[in-house]
Design brief:
Layout lengths: L16 E6 L8 H7 L3 E8 L3 E2 L3 H10 L3 E7 L7 H10 L14 E3 L9 H19 L4 E4 L1 H8 L10 E4 L17 E5 L7 E5 L3 H9 L1
Parallel strand pairs: 1-2, 2-4, 4-5, 5-6, 6-7, 7-8
Antiparallel strand pairs: 1-9, 2-3, 8-9
């Protein structure tokens, strides 16, 4: 079921807000420079599966916070290694939580690296297991980071995840066709290069609406 939201409808044409995502692949990030240039948010890798904690999460997260950036953690999914619930719990225990402080984004589930041998029905069940566990703990569904091609192949272009904010990955001049669950994207990763570190992302709305989104 597709969600309709005032956060990012085409009729409310706000300028996009710059942000970025980072992980241990970016050991040096200029958080203050990013903020000064107009960035207002950062998504920071926290975990993978149930065995890996990003070694720079505890550097990047406070660094982004100190610069005044809205920030949140993300989890790289391994649907072949353990249940969605187990991975959501691990993520929540290691930096992936959310609070209504206006500074924290809901956690992001990163789905991009193949179908892991799962059928579309098994994959959608796994994602739902992760999402419901996350929502039970925080009151919000996690964001989903994916590409249209991954979603089409690995979930058979499932249309039932509109309650999960979309972080669309497409390194191009336009977002292109969206996966079937969504009529709009909340965030768009539009490049794998950002001048101050990491990948470039943009929020589909105004800074005010970004803060409303972070507040829940």
């Amino acid at each position: 079921m597709k969600a309709i939201s005032l956060l990012a409808l085409p009729s409310l044409a706000y300028a996009a807000v710059q942000g970025f995502d980072i992980s241990n692949w970016q050991p040096t990030v200029d958080y203050d420079g990013a903020y000064a240039s107009g960035a207002r948010f950062a998504m920071i890798k926290a975990t993978e599966g149930t065995t890996y904690i990003d070694p720079l999460f505890n550097t990047h997260y406070p660094g982004a916070t100190s610069a005044g950036l809205i920030r949140g953690g993300y989890h790289f999914a391994h649907p072949d290694s353990s249940s969605g619930s187990a991975q959501a719990s691990y993520f929540l225990a290691h930096g992936g939580g959310w609070s209504a402080d206006g500074l924290t984004l809901p956690g992001m589930l990163d789905l991009e690296a193949g179908c892991y041998g799962l059928s579309p029905s098994a994959m959608t069940s796994w994602i739902r297991d992760f999402g419901e566990t996350y929502k039970d703990a925080t009151g919000r569904y996690p964001m989903i980071y994916t590409t249209t091609s991954w979603w089409t192949e690995c979930t058979a272009n499932n249309a039932d995840f509109g309650d999960y904010p979309l972080v669309l990955a497409r390194w191009a001049s336009s977002p292109g066709t969206l996966p079937a669950s969504w009529d709009y994207y909340s965030f768009w990763q539009n490049s794998d290069q950002y001048a101050f570190g990491g990948d470039s992302q943009v929020w589909n709305g105004s800074e005010e609406r970004l803060r409303v989104f972070a507040s829940g």
